[in-house]
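Entry for threonylcarbamoyladenylate complex. Fields follow.
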Amino acid sequence: MTARLATRILPAGSAAAAEAARVLATGGLVAFPTETVYGLGADATDGQAVARLYEAKGRPAFNPLIAHVTDRAAAQALARFDADAERLAAALWPGPLTLVLPKAAACPVAELATAGLDSIAVRVPNHAVARAILTAFGRPVVAPSANRSGHVSPTTAEHVAADLSGRIDLIIDGGATPVGVESTIVACLGEPTLLRPGGVPRAAIERALGKTIAGAPVSAADEEAPLAPGMLASHYAPRTPIRLHAGRIEAGEALLAFGFLLPEGAEHSKMTLNLSARGDLIEAAANLFSHLRALDAAGARAIAVMPVPHEGLGEAINDRLARAAADR
Ligand code: TXA
Ligand code: MG
């Protein structure tokens, strides 16, 4: 058990970016917003800082981390890009896309952060606060979502504080994250493969590549041999049981709605939150994790979830909902 830290919270700004860089340089842990979700950052080149990060999250150390950098040139110091990876980076960086690539020979990222794999996950985020911190720090920053392992990812500084207060040094508060689901992960280690649906829809990946890609649908089998090691079926679990494809609401249930037409029994739900009353999947993704957290706190018997269309960001939303509903 590590000693409790006094976790400071600073509003985003140039002073906060400089302070974040200072804390990172001393091996500390800093949570900051990206366009997808809040990340918990550590100096990627400092094995002890990475070990501290796993400890703070309560995360199994076999689960490798994403290295965040300011641009493609910085990513090329960490990993080898084939033609497909070049196309994806050119079209979609900065943005909510993570590439899993062969590790470069002189890659300075700590072995622990890549869990001993010969591949590495790299991402160039598109969020002013994340970019200011990366620029001020000048080295790669590993950053998993800033939640305790197994919890829902945080989309506000308050979510981060609820999970990690006393366990990390600093939280930079930059407001709610605009995308709301984690980055799309594509492996380019041969034919490109979708490892995790996320903030870039599959169609945009396929457009940039000029071809279709093999996907990684959610299944209980993920538990046995996950493609992305962190994609355990029950990775995104609220405490309250989740009931998917709800056509009617039972007594004592809370409702996670989508669209303006609510199911039978909705008027009796313990609490109702709508991902998007106008049926917009981008708005729904941005609301997903904060609504799950709020409904989880309502003391309901279960959270009933209305069907969400499986197109655009719906693929990532349905992936996270299926994981939230998986047995654990
Ligand atoms: O949007 C995001 O990607 C956020 C923000 C903070 O950038 N980060 C994030 O990190 O979601 P995390 O650690 O929660 O998820 C990273 C995923 C895990 O499922 C991990 O197993 C996978 O990336 N991963 C990392 N390195 C990998 C590798 N070399 N091969 C396959 N999967 C890898
Ligand atoms: Mg995560």
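NOTE: Residues 34, 36-37, 39, 63-66, 96, 98, 100, 114, 117, 119-121, 123, 143-145, 182-183, 185, 195, 228-231 surround threonylcarbamoyladenylate (ligand 1) (CB under 6 Å).
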